């Protein structure tokens, strides 16, 4: 047999020539003496040999435990509200918490063998070879996955018009937005086409569509649900959460997906205890203190304010003490932390080509590589929202480096503590999820400014809790009088007190 050590193998990394190194030296300001470039090249060639050694190691990945077929992109006539990106049918375990439940997975979450687009042409054509941890947990608990739900382009909009496969329509009025970025998840649950859905939330993307579609959506405490195998946006605000028609089903799904992921997601802490959330639901709120956050109603639509405040009184009927609390910081906290969201997302998705780095855990390498190739060849196909944010962040990075990103992350600790102090006096805080009902979908004649503002003008009450990490649920509080559009109430609680947040939502729901 031939000595394999002498056999030729195609190199995994092409080594640079001197001309390339000269250009790189100049581009990054190293100003290496041209006469020394050859010496540097010899050293670098040796460094690069390490990459070939690494390449020979088998790469651990996430498990795929249940058979499936790739499925198909549904025809328009078979795609209610244009809310499916892809349909499939994956049957999980024969028993479990989610036995008999049908589930949709937001298309920023990997499902092995099923195409994934993240709402954008940049990732078009990519098919992951691994299941995200939440997908495996759903299937292990008997859930049946019916497909990938459409989401906004790169998940960077809380409206529902930027998805590359077209706008997602609201089941309550198909001329209106369903909300986003988990637009398809909310629409399909609200329309009765699935029982449960996974949503992703970086600034309100579970809660906004839940509010506008009239369902229940929970952004869990930061780190409670593993993000492993989902497309990252900004490491410090990434959340996955359950969406359902009822609070019970939302709590049931949280039981199935919450918990430590053996160190694969560094957003999590070991030793988390996951209670039986469904067993802690009750319509008896005796002894609880509910704080009506005054500033959460600032500049609020009259019908929304009236509806939510009437619904809040139902907490008193359930036995809670209800009173108004003022926290002026709430009016500026979300704005002050927008630099962390915008610049962090730009660094992860654009500058670093789709990869959060410098952490121990699972890296979705095939997803990252597909994203990098797509971004380098199709960046012009980003949505107008992504282009505006990217252009601004490129300017800020060039002229101010990461000064404001770093300050926002530091200020976040102060803002989190201010909410913590209020939540020492009150068990939960309540306010409208969104300050106005679902708007009409935009038209071709709308200005660029209107389109971009219309993608972000609804997160005043939601985005800050992604930054602080507090659990927040949106539950239906009623409907507008004439148009009969859903209005959501947001209930916010202490870190890892998701059970109490759900209990309050349940007590409200039971009185309708």
Characteristic key phrases:
single chain, 512 residues, two-stranded antiparallel ribbon
Instruction: Flag low-confidence runs.
Output: none
The biggest beta sheet reads: 11 strands, mixed
Strand content: 5-15%
Overall mean pLDDT:
96
Per the principal axes of the C-alpha atoms, what is the gross shape? Answer: globular
Sheet with most strands: strand arrangement: 1-3-2-6-8-7-12-13-11-9-10
Q: What Rg, in angstroms, do the CA atoms define?
A: 24 Å
Helices, by number, come to 14
Number of strands: 13
Short account of what is shown:
The chain has 512 residues and is of the alpha/beta class. The chain has 14 helices and 13 strands. A hairpin with a 2-residue loop joins strand 4 and strand 5.
Descriptive notes:
The chain is an alpha/beta fold and 512 residues long. Helix 8 (330-351) crosses helix 10 (384-400). It has an 11-stranded mixed beta sheet, sandwiched between helices. A two-stranded antiparallel ribbon has the order 4-5. The chain is 35% helix and 14% strand. The protein has helices at residues 18-27, 37-55, 133-140, 183-190, 207-213, 247-257, 302-317, 330-351, 365-378, 384-400, 403-425, 448-454, 463-468, 498-509, and strands spanning 84-91, 102-106, 144-149, 169-170, 173-177, 196-201, 216-219, 239-244, 289-293, 321-325, 428-432, 472-479, 486-493.
């Amino acid at each position: 047999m031939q000595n394999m050590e002498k056999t030729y193998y195609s190199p995994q990394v092409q080594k640079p020539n001197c001309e390339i190194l000269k250009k790189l030296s100049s581009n990054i300001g190293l100003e290496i003496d041209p006469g020394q470039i050859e010496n540097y090249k010899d050293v670098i060639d040796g460094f690069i040999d390490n990459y070939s050694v690494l390449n020979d190691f088998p790469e651990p990945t996430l498990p795929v435990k249940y058979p499936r077929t790739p499925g198909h992109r549904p025809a328009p006539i078979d795609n209610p509200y244009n809310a499916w990106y892809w349909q499939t049918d994956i049957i999980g375990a024969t028993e479990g918490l989610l036995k008999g439940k049908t589930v949709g997975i937001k298309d920023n979450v990997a499902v092995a063998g099923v195409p994934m687009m993240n709402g954008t042409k940049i990732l078009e054509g990519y098919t992951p070879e691994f299941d995200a941890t939440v997908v495996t947990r759903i299937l292990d608990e008997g859930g049946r996955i019916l497909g990938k739900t459409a989401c906004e382009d790169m998940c960077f909009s809380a409206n529902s018009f930027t998805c590359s496969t077209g706008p997602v329509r609201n089941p309550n009025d198909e001329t209106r937005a369903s909300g986003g970025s988990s637009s398809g998840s909310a629409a399909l649950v609200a329309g009765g086409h699935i029982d449960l859905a996974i949503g992703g939330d970086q600034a309100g993307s579970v809660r906004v569509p839940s509010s506008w579609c009239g369902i229940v959506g929970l952004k869990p405490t930061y780190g409670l649900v593993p993000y492993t195998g989902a497309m990252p946006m900004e490491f410090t605000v990434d959340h996955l959460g359950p969406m359902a028609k009822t609070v019970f089903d939302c709590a049931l799904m949280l039981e199935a997906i919450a918990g430590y992921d053996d160190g694969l997601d560094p957003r999590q802490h070991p030793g988390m205890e996951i209670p039986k959330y469904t067993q802690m639901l009750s319509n008896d709120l005796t002894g609880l203190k509910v704080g009506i956050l005054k500033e959460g109603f600032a500049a609020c639509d009259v019908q929304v304010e009236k509806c939510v405040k009437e619904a809040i009184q139902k907490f008193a009927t359930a036995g809670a003490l209800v009173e108004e609390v003022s926290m002026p910081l709430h009016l500026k906290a979300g704005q002050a932390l927008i630099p962390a969201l915008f610049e962090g997302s730009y660094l992860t998705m654009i500058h670093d080509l789709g990869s959060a780095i410098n952490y121990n855990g699972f890296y979705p390498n095939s997803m990252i590589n597909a994203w990098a190739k797509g971004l380098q060849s199709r960046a012009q196909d980003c949505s107008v929202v992504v282009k505006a944010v990217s252009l601004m962040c490129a300017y800020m990075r060039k002229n101010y480096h990461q000064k404001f990103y770093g300050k926002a992350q530091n200020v976040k600790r102060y803002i989190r503590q201010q909410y913590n102090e209020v939540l020492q006096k009150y068990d939960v805080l309540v306010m409208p999820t969104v300050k106005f009902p679902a708007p009409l979908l935009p038209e071709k004649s709308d200005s660029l400014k209107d389109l971009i503002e219309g993608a972000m003008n609804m997160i005043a009450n939601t985005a800050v809790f992604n930054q602080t990490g507090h659990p927040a649920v949106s539950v239906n509080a009623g409907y507008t009088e004439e148009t009969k559009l859903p209005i959501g109430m947001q209930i916010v609680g202490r870190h890892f007190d998701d059970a109490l947040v759900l209990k309050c939502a349940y007590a409200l729901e039971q009185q309708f």
